[in-house]
Write a structure and sequence with these properties.
CATH architecture of the domain at 103-120 and 436-555: Orthogonal Bundle
Largest sheet: 5 strands, parallel
Number of strands: 14
Strand content: 5-15%
Helix content: 40-55%
CATH superfamily of the domain at 103-120 and 436-555: Isoleucyl-tRNA Synthetase, Domain 1
Radius of gyration: 29 Å
Strand order of the largest sheet: 6-5-4-10-11
CATH topology of the domain at 103-120 and 436-555: Isoleucyl-tRNA Synthetase, Domain 1
Distance between the termini: 34 Å
Length: 563
Amino acid sequence: MVQYQLAALLRRAIEHAQEVGSLPEFEVPAFEMERPARKEHGDWSSGIALVVARQAGRKPRDIADAIVAAAEVIEHDSREHVAKFEVAGPGFINITLTHAWLTDIVREVESAGPDWGRSKLPASERIQVEFVSANPTGPLHLGHGRWAAVGDTLARLLEWTGQDVKREFYVNDFGRQIDLFAASIAVRYLERFGRDAGPIPEGGYRGAYVGELAAEIAAEVGDRYVEAPESDRLAFFREQGYRRMLAHQRATLERFGVVFDVWFSETTLHDEGAVQRIIEVLNELGHVYEQDGARWLRTTDFGDDKDRVLVRSEAFGGIPTYVAPDIAYFLDKLRRGFQRMIYLLGADHHGFARRMCASISALGEDPEHCEFMLGQFVHLTRAGESVKMSKRTGEAVTFDELLEEVGVDAARYLLVRTSIDQTINFDLDLAVSQTQENPVYYVQYAHARICSIMRHAADQGVQTEPVDGVALEELQHESELDLLRKIAELPEAVQVAARLRAPHRMTRFAEELAALFHGFYRDCRVVTEDAALTQARLHLARATQISLHNVLALLGVSAPESM
């Protein structure tokens, strides 16, 4: 990409200035080019002169002047892209690119097609992104939907920068919550056959979906488990409830365009002895102590705010807490060769990162393998009023119900659009509106408008010529040049969004690109009496279409050809 080429040009210019004596010897640190805040300051800018001023023992502006003087005389592959160097302010080096480079972006985009925006970073990692990971005891809620949208988009961004990525769902299928789920279904099942099964157990599940599951199972097995021993009945409903609810969650996610590479069962960690081995290892390392009948992990020695219960006391079943399985799961990820693990978690998991880092350190492993992204909640509104309850059940609105009302495209786009550290106020009215105020409609409409332009050109008998023979230098209008500059930014925008773990930046890019296209459409007639200009503008429209399509694909949103 051009910013790397320009950075290499400036580095070579510094070396040349040192060779001829206009700059003293010093080690040049790694640096990146930046986009100037104002268009009149050029296409790219560098503050390298300010960074090395202390090493060089000179004023930053004098250093910048020396770098520019050298850059203007040396031979370098990227020198032909530069129309002008300019030193500004305290020592910034601003670079304006040639018109030919800018218009050549059209050819580059059309050549890359669906791969425009992809890049290959020098250092590639095996990355696991774990997200959603809901208990298999109920339908997915709105928070799960947000993590699904953000996690999948982040995985796509990482893949587009050359990373080896796996999406993983950790199934919390071990412990008391599964037993309570089974007992809750059993109560509703027995009620269907006129049996007084007593109330739902304390801490159990009372949602309407539990009765629906019981009815579904009863339709298949009849009264076979009415007279069965309670242990057999509960074992049956434990397996049936878990299997059916997990299948329901998987179907919801696949409907949403999210397909996991791995569904990892917590139970397997217990069955294979991994959890018990972790406890034994931590004990051998001297990090475990007993208090009040429980076994504790001394995580405060490793930066945690409090020690954590590792194994409950006999009064509470004498079973491991979630701490040991979480550590065992981390080690399993390491064993599978992952170099980086990204956890997407809800706001109520704020202590998880501290605990995990401390526990990993206690084992002698490096917590730098892990990244923890904590997100805020989603609130639904309609006509300015909060929506908390489902019209169908009178309970909390499920993610399925949101998808039924607004569709996959609006849900994915609007759930990604806000940085995860901010609460989302999801406006149902806005999500379904077909107006420019609806951001997903606004972006999709730009894509559909380009398709319409192409159809109109064909109807007028204008055949789009191969881009290699098109006079792209005809693109001179400021609206055309602004659009070209934004299209050229896509590979960089993908890299930045991936590096910062900020998928919401891609919605901002999509909306800015759409706005520039709408401005171009307003200012520049595409099909004109000038054949050469028409061809150039058709290809500019085509490059915009490819860019919009690719950004929407990254977001998991469709790119309609008509609206």
